[in-house]
Amino acid sequence: MSTDSSKEHVDSEKSSYSSKWKAFAANTTLHGLRYVVEDSHSISRRATWLLFLLTVAGAYSYYASISFGKFFSKPVKTIVSDETPIGGMKFPAVTICNLNKFMKSKIDVADEDERFNKMGLNISGCSEIREVRGNLTCGQAMLCAFHPYGNVLVEDCNTTKRQNIFNRLNRTSERLFDEEQFLAKYGHDITDMFVLYCRFLELMECSDKDFVPILTGAGICFTFHSGHNSSAPILKSKFEGPDLGLNIVLDVQTNESTLSEFSSGLKVIVHDQDTYVNRHNGFNIFLAHIRLPLPYKTGCSRQNSLPGFGNYTKDGCIYQCVTNLTSDRCGCRTAGFPDLKLLPVCSFQDQLCIKESLTEFVNLTTCPCNNPCLEDEYESRVSYSKFPDASVTKLLQNVFGRNVSASYMQQNYVFLQVGFQHLAYEKREDVPSYGPESLFGELGGNMGLFLGCSILTVCGVHQLSVGSCNGQDKATPHG
């Protein structure tokens, strides 16, 4: 008797929840559902509406998957704005490199000349090759062996003498030739390139002491306002125009040409302070980048500095990676790169190993280097004019005491001006372009478009489902 009573109770509960679902379907904003569940409609009509409902539900699911895919891809957009800093624009570092690597007057200094030791030209390897270099000076012999076309650049440098120098330098495991020493000691001096005229903001005089030597793999360079000296003031420009920036007259010294990049002149790199100087950049309006880190697509690096390279830059990171790759494989470091592992500079005998390691470096993904999240970039516009004219020539000769001809000045003197065209910078800020608010807005919009319901409808379905399950659990007879 009790069993029959329990079955009747369960049937009553099922009938009750069935009627609740039908009542919900008849009044819900989920369009079309009532035409599927109402018994008053024919089976064919109910089936048709079920097909319609499943179709739009499928379409909604498809577009919802696109929305979720877009959200998890973490896209960004760039907001560009013009900013005018209060108190003036921070002046960049300016690096000047002579395209000629070695000075002819130094290359030609003989061992017996008192300048040989006074100028520090007696570098590592000079005494070891003295017997095989014949009438060549140390500088000439090193250039003969150092450069692939040394036999063309250096008189009396032939294949036999070149090979003898190689053999003598390579006869021990010790690296006798130090390329960094060769570049630093036989390269140009900022003192010799300086023509006594240097001004900043037309008020502050500058001198060769304000330029810091920077050794790169392509020779020695000199940086103004480098930022390496923490006690030095940060220079700011409060006026527009090249006349109110850095103004300096330099002597290219074309008569000292020995080994250059197929031309005579200067390479000028405008960059942020205390960053790796990439000689391949050259003459670079001021840009400030604010990027987003992972998981956003820009994937910028939060790293602030690179050991030995100063502030973090992508260029510095890549070159550090290449340096590590070379040092791990060859046991030495490339000239011009920081000595982080107390390794010697690579020499002649390491050239094959270096070439093989760089050949393996065929994919930049080898080095996980991203752009920094905060970066200042300087983009330069360049203009040229003939210098000097007749009046400036007289000024240089009489006031600054340059006892050289007008022809020499026109061939060698460069009047370099670096200043801001506008006292404002372009700020490029990366921000999320598709955040949670965009995701929910798109999901809700498509839900209303395809199904005619809202999140409250979903909550109602969930509540009714939970209530049905709990009710059925309670109504299930035991025993």
Automatic annotation (TrEMBL):
Recorded GO molecular functions are: ligand-gated sodium channel activity
Name the domain of life. Answer: Eukaryota
GO CC term, one of those recorded = plasma membrane
The primary site where this protein sits is membrane
Alphabetic keyword roster: Ion channel, Ion transport, Membrane, Sodium, Sodium channel, Sodium transport, Transmembrane, Transmembrane helix, Transport
InterPro entries, sorted: ENaC
The yes or no answer to whether the keyword Nucleotidyltransferase is present is no
UniProt subcellular location: Membrane
Question: What residues form the membrane-spanning segments?
Answer: 49-72
Q: Which Pfam families does the annotation name?
A: ASC
Q: Which Gene3D superfamilies does the record associate with it?
A: Acid-sensing ion channel domain, Acid-sensing ion channels like domains
| Record membrane topology | Multi-pass membrane protein
Q: Which family does it belong to?
A: Belongs to the amiloride-sensitive sodium channel (TC 1.A.6) family.
Please report the name of this protein according to its UniProt entry: Uncharacterized protein
